[in-house]
Every structure is written in C-alpha cells, then in structure tokens.
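lol so apparently i was supposed to do this last week
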Amino acid sequence: MKVRDCQVNPPPNAGFPATATPPFPAFLASDWEEAWAPYDEMTYQAVLDHLRPEDRVLDIGAGDLRLALRMVRRTAHVHALELHAKLIPSPLSLPANLSVVIGDARALPFPPDVTVGVLLMRHCRHFAHYVEKLQAVGCRRLLTNARWGMDVEEIDLSVPAQPFESLAMGWYGCRCGAVGFVPGAPEALTSELEARFHEVASCPQCASVRASREHPGYPFRRSEEAAHPIPAERSRTVSPALPTGRYSL
Ligand SMILES: C[S@@+](CC[C@H](N)C(=O)[O-])C[C@H]1O[C@@H](n2cnc3c(N)ncnc32)[C@H](O)[C@@H]1O
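anyway here it is w/ S-adenosylmethionine bound
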C-alpha cells in the first residue's frame, strides 16, 4: 500500500491536542462509521472475484470511487452511493454504466434493479438496515466486510437465515451484523464443526441493535451536503434509477 493511500479522513472531533488529559473527547462509533479510508488490494480483489458480468451493483459508502471504477469494468452497472461529496474526484467523467449519488444510504431509496450489494465498511452500525433495504428491492447477494471486520464474505440474501435458537454449537453471523461462536461441550467440537459457518437471525445481540436504531438520532446525524454543497454548475439531476437522490456528478 502506498503511503498516500493510508490517509484517513479523521472523525470530526479527532483534533484534540496531544497534551490533553483524560477524559478525552469521545470518538463516537458514528464518527468512525462516516470516516473514509481505502482498503487493501486483497479486499478489493475479493469483491471483484465475486462479481458476475450481468450484475447491477449498489456500492454503499463508495468513498473516492476507486472500487466502483473497477467494478464497472466487470459488471452491467454500478450505483455508487457516498455520503461525503468532497471524496468524489473532480473533474470526473463517468463511464456510462456508473451512476454516483451523494447522500445518506440509510435514507435514500435503493435502486430497484440491484443484484448485488457491496458494503465495505468495517465500522458499519447499520448492517441490519442495509440488509433489509437490499432485500426489499429484491437484491439476492451482499459482499461485505462489515460483519467480520476484515474478510469479505458473500451473504446469500435469498436464503432465509436459521433461527439462532436452533444452533447447538458453532460459528454464526446474524442478519443484525453480529458474529460469534455458540459454545458447547468440548468433546462435541470437531474440525468440521469448527470450519462450518451458520447464517442466523434473532441472535442475542439483535435487541441492542434494535435499541440503537430507536435512538433519537437515527437514522440522521448531520447533513453532509449542507457542510459540502456541490457547486451548482457541477450538479445535475440524478440518474433515473434513484429518483430522490441528489446529484450525479
Ligand atoms: C471505510 S470507507 C470505504 C470506502 C470504499 N467502500 C472503499 O472501499 O474504498 C466507508 C465509506 O462509507 C461512507 N459512508 C458511511 N456511512 C454512509 C452513509 N450512511 N451513506 C453513504 N455513505 C456512507 C463513508 O463516507 C466512507 O467513504
């Protein structure tokens, strides 16, 4: 990775002096979620390897479009959705099969033609919400590092997840975004069981995910567009697939 690729947009309250004494200003989880940082080549390659020529991709939190611009070469269409207008390179000439929308993925409607969602966001706190929105538009696959924090996994959204209670022992990932291991008797732990992964719903962490969604601040925290308005001469109506989106650059 090149040094210039390592730059991170720090969370807005990250600039406290080095001499500061406790209690330090809090780094909110939401600050990390909205921070931009690119991923390594292996992560992007893992996503690209799962794409099909007929795919219509929704890239949720597309950053500076570095992955989106590679995905368009392998797929029918990429919708790139990014909160921070300042990240989008300018001037930008878009390939015909790439649409870029600046806005909040939690609130914007998802396009109805999406076959695969891409969510590279290790600090994502809205995993369950994005899964629900993708399923609502009939999207059948999700490529993401949001649950495990590192590795990219493909989740088959068309297959119902098994109830958490039915899992006697083993690794699981839940549709709320939680992952974990249900322990059991040591003698029951086989190498096959250790290597197996279970897609579950209604795990013990679901309640806290639900509670955080009922937080008064959800789903909006602040308007990025107000802070970084797109100059009028560069803005025009968004692609027809996202009628209520703001801009396509
Ligand atoms: C870790 S970066 C990854 C960027 C890009 N996916 C990549 O791999 O190069 C996560 C991105 O998600 C964006 N993001 C976070 N929350 C978002 C939201 N609610 N709507 C749209 N974008 C969001 C951030 O602004 C940031 O650019």
